[in-house]
Amino acid sequence: MPELPEVETTRRRIAPLLVGRTVAEVRTTRPSYLFLTPPARLRRALAGRRVERLERRGKYLIGGLDDGSRLVLHLGMTGQLFSSAATSPRLWRVADRAASADARTGGAAALSSPRAQRVFAPDQHTHLRLSFRDAGPEVWLRDARKFGKVLWLAPGEESERLARLGVDALAATGATLYAATRGRSVAIKSLLLDQAVIAGVGNIYADEALYGAGVRPTRRAGRVSREECERLATALRGVLERSIETGGSSISDYIAPDGSDGAYQDERRVYAREGEPCSRCGTRIWRVVLGQRSAYYCPKCQR
DNA sequence: CACTTCCCCTGCAAGC
DNA sequence: TGCTTGCAGGGGAAGT
Fold first, then answer.
1. Nucleotides of B under 7 A from a protein CB
2. Is A3 a catalytic residue?
3. Cβ contact A62:A165 at 8 Å
4. Distance CA A73, CA A36 (A)
5. What's the Å distance between residue A229 CA and nucleotide C14 C1'?
6. Which one of A90, A184, A287, A293 is the catalytic residue?
7. How far is CA A41 from each of CA A17, A112, A129, A194, rounded to the nearest angstrom?
8. Parallel, antiparallel or unpaired: strands A293-297 and A286-290
9. Nearest residue to C10 via alpha carbon and C1'
């Protein structure tokens, strides 16, 4: 589940394969809600455009094009952005599935060469494929659950989605949190997940930051003290920066553009650890449902 | 306006 | 073994 660290890792690793290159052809799957900009319009808009930069805002990736337009991507729950030249066993498994699907439908098996020489193949979940004029590796967007978003913005066009975003989670301070929580009766965790307040935090890092700060996820936001807001901001920055260092968390679906796994899942203290002993006090980790989502915490260390 | 619930989607794991 | 059921959750729409 791509949150800020996974999106940032994706950005850093896919940028060298995008920036400075000119799009030749855009291939899409059939229209779906994934495409906020209709595929036909997207194809016309991107063909011939050179990518000048790739930025991140919260969980969004924003490609700046040479005509001033922008390509906005959100990876949702299962979005993966990677290169057709990636060499990784994780991606070979996808390639194998694509080949068997191809065989089932009577098409020519695309992957018969030895593993070391094979090129990764798109499957039924590969919804966007960009090829480039230099004929080098393509860049693909794969999203099994299709919770992601693809949006093209004309030069100067604003986006309500982007305008709604609050301060980037890496820049959030204790003062930011304190101001945002005053008078709010929602659970502090729900507020952390609100992208209009802080952009980039998802379920994993919200739980980890609250654990680091010793604050229960269910506490009313307005009851969190100034000192606790300071601890929370520090803990949040800490877990996000550490996760970026380790390449993000590979729980369920996330893999980096080169097909590699992140390692932060091995460092998480509470997320998806229901019943396991707290690393500080040994108490069993609890799981509660908050806003239709699981929240994990130590009932002793978090008050 | 603040807050909660529902829903989009698919793969995987647990249970029978 | 094979089926059904439940769960994962970003985030917007709809409901309270």
1. 2-11
2. yes
3. no
4. 10
5. 32
6. A293
7. 23, 35, 15, 31
8. antiparallel
9. A76
User: Is strand B within 7 Å of residue A190 (CB)?
Assistant: yes
Model pLDDT for residues A267-302, shown as the tens digit of each residue: 789 999 999 999 999 999 999 999 889 999 999 999
Query: Cα(A118)–Cα(A132) distance, rounded to whole angstroms?
Result: 20
CA at A80, C1' at C8: how many angstroms apart? 17
Query: Measured CA to C1', what is the nucleotide nearest A196?
Result: C11
Q: Residue A126, CB, less than 7 Å from strand B?
A: no
Between CA A109 and CA A95 the distance in angstroms is 11
Cβ-contact A17, A81 below 8 angstroms: no
Q: Is A293 a catalytic residue?
A: yes
pLDDT, tens only, A47-84: 999 999 999 999 999 999 999 999 999 999 999 998 88
Asked if A219 CB < 7 A from strand B, the reply is no
Q: Whats the size of chain A, residue-wise?
A: 303
Domains and CATH numbers, chain A: 4-163 (3.20.190.10), 167-297 (1.10.8.50)
pLDDT in tens, A116-159: 344 567 888 999 999 999 999 999 999 989 999 999 999 999 99
Say if CB A1 and CB A251 are below 8 A apart: yes
Q: What is the 3-state composition of chain A as percent helix, strand, coil, each rounded to the nearest 5?
A: 35, 20, 45
Taking CA A59 as the corner, what is the angle to CA A184 and CA A86, rounded to the nearest 5 degrees? 160
Q: Which residues pair with A284 in a beta bridge?
A: A277
Inter-CA distances, A53 with A50, A64, A200, Å: 9, 5, 20
Task: Measure CA to C1' and name the residue nearest B12.
Answer: A252
Q: Which nucleotide is nearest to A222 (CA to C1')?
A: B2
State the Cα–Cα distance between residues A124 and A95, nearest whole angstrom.
Answer: 11
Distance CA A247, CA A36 (A): 29
